Amino acid sequence: MNLKGNYQFDASSKAIWDCLMNPEVLTRITPGISRLEQIEEDQFKAIADVKIGPVKGSFEGNLKVAEKKEPERFVLKITQKSKIGNVSADVAIALNKKEDGQTEMEFDGKAKLSGLLARTGQRVLSGVANTLTKQFFKALEKELA
Amino acid sequence: MTFIGKSVKRVEDQRFLTGKGRYTDDIVLPGMTYAYILRSPYAHAKILSINTSKAEAMDGVVKIFTGKDIAAAGINGVPCGWQVNFKNGDTMKEPPHPLLVADKARYAGDGVAMIIAESKEAARDAADMVDVEYEELDAVTNAADAVADGKPLVHDDAPNNMCFDWELGNPIDEVNAAMSAADHITSLEFTNQRVIPNAMEPRAAIGQYEDHSGKYTLHTTSQNPHLTRLLMCAFVLGVPEHKVRVVAPDVGGGFGSKIFHYAEEALVIWASKQLNRPVKWTSDRSEAFLTDAHGRDHISKAEMGFDKDGNILALRVKTHANLGAYLSTFAPCVPTWLHGTLLQGLYTTPKINVDVTGVFTHTTPVDAYRGAGRPEATYLLERLLDKAALEMKRDPAELRLQNFIPAFDGVKEEGYMTQVALQYDSGNYHGVLERALEMVGYEDFRKEQAAARDEGRLLGIGFSTYIEACGIAPSAVVGALGARAGLYESAQVRVQPTGKVSVYSGSHSHGQGHETTFAQVVADKLGIPLEDVEIVHGDSEAVAFGMGTYGSRSLAVGGSAIVRSIEKVLEKGAQIAAHKLEANPEDLEYAGGKWTVKGTDKSVAFGDVALTAYVPHDYPQGLEPGMDFSSFYDPANFTYPFGAHIAIVEVDKDTGKVSLKRFIAVDDVGNVINPMIVDGQIHGGLAQGIGQALFEGAIYDEYGQLTNGSYMDYTMPRADDLPSFEVDRQVTPCPHNPLGVKGAGEAGCIGSTPAVVNAVMDALAPFGIKDLEMPMTPERVWRTMNS
To answer: Same fold for the domain at B13-137+198-291 and the one at B372-470+638-785?
Structure first.
């Protein structure tokens, strides 16, 4: 499944960067995440509950921040396991400076699904992913305000 | 009393429709445990470790077995029942198909561990706590891609993922020569997509071991209980066959997917002895999508050469057949001997060459699905014919009629020898198409279509004619073609002392209505009431032997075996009757349930003769008491049902949605015992074939994940997708079996798919569209119209 999109923020790339690198903020703003624990530099343990159509699952796994170039871009490496299947994704995130102090956040990646998650509702999953990212961006916007 | 040819209501429907059917999952045995199979979520992965300790400690968990336990117990994998060789004579690649895998998973759904608990729920919960560490590997899912160099291998000892390559027909040089002499060549590259069987009842199995007798009982959702017993005992578990009883009770549909011997059957039998408790496994729907053998999945290139008058000169076919990750029981035979041999179709094509490569991929195993190979052959031919007609500006019906094999009855005129190893038994191919054209009102339709086009409406008509090799099959012939089993059928007719009749048939019924049709044959031949006949099937302890139900074989082979036993009953009965009537057996005739001395009113009834056979006080000297006969019938040839189907569709220009307006099916299945049941079989088959054309298709992603493994994602045809079918019959009896029947189970599914696709192509002709893949979903049609 492809993950691609962008969002315009009325904030500097540095401010966004700081939010994104702060586990406390991320726990607050990421839909479904119930716990985010730093286990080492740039590496987090994440626990999330997600409902996709008829499929509901508790996910547990790692988030890893790689290829960091502050405050412009990084790659988020996600591996999450659940009883309903596993997800792994590499998402490149870019923070592009725009006029008037605005910043465009752009993401581009691919998620790989397995198990029940892959065969039930994959069709509706990109819609769900869109909704979740929209929620995430809105929440981030509030944090930045 | 005549029953043959009457639409007798199905006797089994009373229990099915009132919830009294007894299916495998309905059976609860004392002390029963429940198994859940933990399956690989990955299509291709190394199993690095399995930790069951947390799960084993959970409440209600009885035992967990992993692939390592199965390997340590010395249990073999599931065997394949058909061998196809490479062109160079090498044996096909036949990698082991373990009951549970120990070190590597080869498709998403491969069994990794069996969790046995006191309840289904406890087993499932415990499965969640089994830790399996996988190393994910790259997967291949497409048969044509998988043979390229450097692709991930499903099995290390099958280079290029090839199981076999196979060829049939005329030498390729001759076909190439005929092709180069052609004035017109029509070619087609297409996928006959993978479909998922979706029987109403998911698979289930109960293993039961009794330590007092050392005997096992397997209850299973099988189309084929005796063969399951043979394969499981002799090849998998090494358990003596006479110690194992296999029962297939009421079974809710199979469409082929329940022919095969599955790992779960052997697992529950083996585990029941380890635990000394019965073990039940029941698939859920999601598991059924993933683990029931799938159907079709061919990628083909086909070319047909014509002379300037439209006569077919040659056919050349190259197919990559996806076999999935392992060889299911009959997998190698489906794309070869059940596909290549049908490429003559109804046509006089003088030169045919077909080349098939069987390919392993990281997907669910593929095997026979209603029609099995024959729908793929029919689709290929019938798409070619319609496309050729369009290209050569010929009428598609007329082009077919011109190229049909002339009628022959198989008695006065000999059977037709094809270029692809078969001899058709009897046929009148012009008859079925001409009747279908008459029913559809062809000329009027073309006028209506032209008028509709003027209004901007897209109407289309599509043709399909088919022939199938059914009544499977003469044992010596299939043996020569690689079958590792005979394909005869057994029947025992036991006349009880009161004249009631029990018939033990090796042919299993899982929706076909054997309990009615077979009883009609028996009641008719014996002249007794229908309710005096009981058909017993599906129990290896009751029935001598059986080769199962598939390949439209039940009546042609199983029914013929019953007729043979009835002949023996009547022959013995005549001797007893002659004794009672003080006449010679030759002077008697049997009619209306009694033997009568010809030309007199002296007679004795069937029931009196039956009683005498069991109370032989006044009895012919030297004759054994009793009246119980068994027969094994091995057919002389396949049977060859055929037919012509016509579909009329309308395509919505704005949405791309295809509406099926009319469907005409004229089928010739030989003699008919119960017209209502035959109609029902045709209707069901049509729905399935139409499903493939318009709705169905398994979709794997690049990682080998089945992405539409649920009813939310996989579209089955619904009643409101289908018109009221217009069906008619022609009767050309089979010349080589005693009932003259050919088989009707698969016909609808074989003929309908290309008719619908051809109709859509005809509707889209104004757009210059010549090819479109199935399923013809609104999205696909719309995109094509708008590209």
So the answer is: no
Tell me the CATH number for domain B13-137+198-291.
Answer: 3.90.1170.50
Please judge whether B705 and A119 are an interchain contact, meaning their C-beta atoms are less than 8 angstroms apart: yes
B285, pLDDT greater than 90: yes
Residues of B in contact with A124 (CB under 8 A): 712
CB atoms within 10 A of CB B241: 13
Question: B707 vs A119: CB contact, 8 Å cut-off?
Answer: yes
- pLDDT(B1) > 90: no
- Which of A112, A119, A128 to probe the B interface (max B CBs under 10 A)? A119
Inform me whether the pLDDT recorded for B163 exceeds 70: yes
Contact between residue B4 and residue B524 where contact means Cβ atoms under 8 Å apart: yes
Assess contact for A109 and A119: CB atoms under 8 A: no
Nearest to B34 by CA among B205, B215, B191, B172: B205
Cα torsion B542, B548, B554, B560: sign: negative
Burial class (CB in 10 A: 0-12, 13-18, 19+), B52: buried
Separation of alpha carbons A44 and A48, rounded Å: 13
* Tokens 């052959």, residue located: B377
Q: How many angstroms separate the CA atoms of B675 and B671, rounded?
A: 10
Residue B586 has pLDDT above 90, yes or no: yes
**Strand runs labelled E in B638-699:** 642-651, 658-668
Q: Does the distance separating the beta carbons of A114 and B42 come in below 8 Å?
A: yes
Distance CA B646, CA B400 (A): 13
For chain B, the structural domain boundaries read 13-137+198-291, 372-470+638-785, 488-633
> Does the domain at residues A2-144 carry the CATH identifier 3.30.530.20?
yes
With beta carbons less than 8 A apart as the criterion, state whether B515 and B505 touch: no
Name which of A112, A114, A119 is nearest B708 (Cβ-Cβ).
Answer: A119
Q: A interface mutation test: which of B136, B707, B715 has the most A CBs within 10 A?
A: B707
Put simply, the answer to whether B705 touches A53 (Cβ < 8 Å) is no
Three-state secondary structure call for residue B637: coil
pTM of the model: 0.95
Inter-chain residue contact B713 with A120, CB threshold 8 Å: yes
Pairwise CA distance, residues B384 & B190, whole Å: 11
Average per-residue pLDDT in chain B? Answer: 97
Nearest residue on chain A to B127, judged by CA atoms?
Answer: A83
Q: Which amino acid is at B718?
A: R
B667: nearest Cα among B655, B650, B679, B656: B679
| The pair of three-digit structure tokens given for residue B701, joined into one six-digit string | 């992603």
Chain A, residues 37-66, CB within 8 A of chain B, namely: 53-54
Number of residues that this document lists for chain B: 787
Residue whose tokens read 């009767």: B731
CATH 3.30.365.10 at B488-633, yes or no = yes
Distance in Å, alpha carbon of B342 to nearest chain A alpha carbon: 35
Mean pLDDT throughout B535-541?
A: 97
CATH topology of domain B372-470+638-785: Aldehyde Oxidoreductase; domain 4 (3.30.365)
